[in-house]
Amino acid sequence: MDNFIVSARKYRPDNFASVVGQKSITTTLKNAIQNNHMAHAYLFCGPRGVGKTTCARIFAKTINCQSLINETEPCNECESCVSFNKDRSYNIHELDAASNNTVDDIRNLIDQVRIPPQLGKYSVYIIDEVHMLSTSAFNAFLKTLEEPPEHAIFILATTEKHKILPTILSRCQTFNFSRITVEDATMHLAYVATQENVTAETEALNIIAQKADGAMRDALSIFDQIVSFSGNEITYENTIANLNVLDYDYYFKLVKAFLNEDISSCLTYFDEILDKGFDGLHFIAGLSKHLRDLLVSKDEKTLQLLEVGANIKAQYLEQSKECTPWFLFQALKVTNETEINYKSNQNKRLAIELALIKLCNLLAEKKKVN
Fold first, then answer.
1. Number of neighbours of residue 260 by Cβ within 10 angstroms
2. Which domains does the chain have, with CATH numbers?
3. How far is the C-alpha of 321 from the C-alpha of 158, rounded, in Å?
4. Gyration radius of the chain's alpha carbons
5. Which of 102, 109, 200, 253 has minimal CB crowding within 10 Å?
6. Alpha carbon of 71 to those of 5, 30, 61: distances in Å?
7. Which residue in 292, 259, 270, 268 sits closest to 352, CA to CA?
8. What is the reported pTM?
9. pLDDT tens digits for 301-322?
10. In the chain, what's the furthest Cα-to-Cα distance?
């Protein structure tokens, strides 16, 4: 049996063009390489799984490529690129600052920096989780970071920029990586599914992208999990079952019941949701998000904030027409207060049931006032 390679490794970008969701950063780095305006120190910061270390590796590979394509992309054929692709390049050095954070570790790095590269023009030193370095290690690193040898380039990567000393920040060009949007993640997952001969519903991939919360690496890991669960056919039903996600359909039915002042249906739906093993807090938070999504669906300017698939978006647009802004504001107020007070309530089920009853009575109360 062939060794399985997880998708996050198998489909890791190997050039700037294949990096997902960081176009402004990759464009800047390519222009710097093309115009020979490269700095000696970079800081890549942002959430986990968005491509910081990947971009650092691609940058290191590109600046040492012996025959660049269009002056900005590695050829993957020269000796330098081949050695990089096979993880035997001596031009790139990676240090995990989480486990190598002492002064002695940095002194060893400084001694290594003095040695010029055997192949290629630059030695690139990638220090991951750099915020984990001790203060004394940072101080020992300062002089070398400010005035390294001509052949040395440092790329510092971190998820917690605020923990880095200002003296370090001032010596680096800073690139802030953004979360991968649901749309970009869904498109990339669709590409991976095609490459793996997996049939996947767009709504299912959209759920995976939402669950990953902006991290492409997490999205690919969840994708592998779903493939293991459902085989080569990923459906919306299998995805929400495996990821313990509450079906949108419940929220649409609940809002319809609120508008119809149908208390019995609301309580019945909630009972079904609890029987499926969902937590009350998870449910009320999801209901708040659903009401928020209905609110942003009422205006074309805010419709772009709705991160769902096309079919679900059509349902939101249809139901938003039935809800007045006043109703949605009042409903959000009820669900938000319930969520805040949920943990302090002794009878948590009753607290949510009372909230559902209030939501069913919103329109009736307004009629009494008028």
1. 12
2. 7-176 (3.40.50.300), 182-242 (1.10.8.60), 248-369 (1.20.272.10)
3. 44
4. 26
5. 102
6. 32, 8, 13
7. 270
8. 0.81
9. 888 787 777 778 888 888 988 8
10. 83
